[in-house]
Each structure stands twice: as C-alpha cells, then as structure tokens.
Amino acid sequence: TYTNNKCSIKIDEKEFSSNMTSCFVSNSKYIGGHFKVAPRASIKDGLLDVVIGNNSGSFKSLKRIIKMKTGRYIDDEKILYLQGRRIFIKSRSENNVNITIDREQLGILPAYLTVIPHSLKIRS
Q1: Do residues 42 and 55 make contact, with C-beta atoms less than 8 angstroms apart?
Q2: Pick from 51, 46, 14, 13: which is nearest to 27 by CA?
C-alpha cells in the first residue's frame, strides 16, 4: 500500500506542511510532452509553479493524475497550486523521497529549486 510523504515546504517566505502524494515543479504549462500539469505557468514570469497532490490514496491519486493531464483539476481541494521564486522541500518522515527530473532519478529530498533568469537562450 502507498503511504503519503510528510513534507515541509517553503515557497518564498510561506511555510507549510503536506502529506504529499505527488509534487510537480514546473516553469512551463506542460511536462512530458502533453501533460498539462501547470496551466497557469509561463516561462517568462520568473516563477516556478508547484502542484501538490495532497493526502490521497493510491486509487484517488490515479484519478487526480488523469485530471492533471488536461489541467482540469484547479477546483480539486486535494490539489494545491502555488507559485514562487524559491522552493524548498524536505521530508519529515523516515522514508527517502525520490526526486525525478525528466523521468530520471536525480536524488532524494531535501531539494532547493529556483529560476535563474536568462540562463538559457530560447528561440521562438
């Protein structure tokens, strides 16, 4: 059975806790091609969009992930949608919480994420 991860999250100066089922951090609307996880995101605003599936069981989590694919989850009380410039996430449980970037396991929490303006040249 799946157990949610107890995590502390700091977004800019706001701190809170979550029984996290999933967490996506993005600076664009789509991840993985057609997965519209962050419908309010813009690569031009200097913000990271944080989408947290909060306190869900495994079957309910699957239903929410299907909603997330289309970006139609904003009214779901179990999904938090936040924006900020600096994101810090750490686990408060004994479990190691994996960090995955583009389907590659990068490490485990804690993680600090921020936007570095103008660090990539993007052609349109």
Answers
A1: no
A2: 46
pTM of structure: 0.81
Encode the chain (124 residues) as per-residue pLDDT tens digits. Answer: 567 889 999 999 999 999 888 888 998 888 877 788 888 999 889 999 998 888 766 556 666 666 666 666 666 667 888 999 999 999 998 888 888 887 788 899 999 999 888 887 777 6
Q: How far is CA 108 from the centre of its chain?
A: 14
Query: Quick one: residue 58, left, alpha or beta (phi over 0 = left, psi -120 to 50 = alpha)?
Result: alpha
- How open is the CA angle 81-47-87, to the nearest 5 degrees? 70
Burial, 50: exposed, middle or buried (Cβ in 10 Å; 0-12, 13-18, 19+)? buried
Which residues have a Cβ under 8 Å from the Cβ of 84 and sit 6 or more positions away? 11, 12, 14, 47, 48, 50
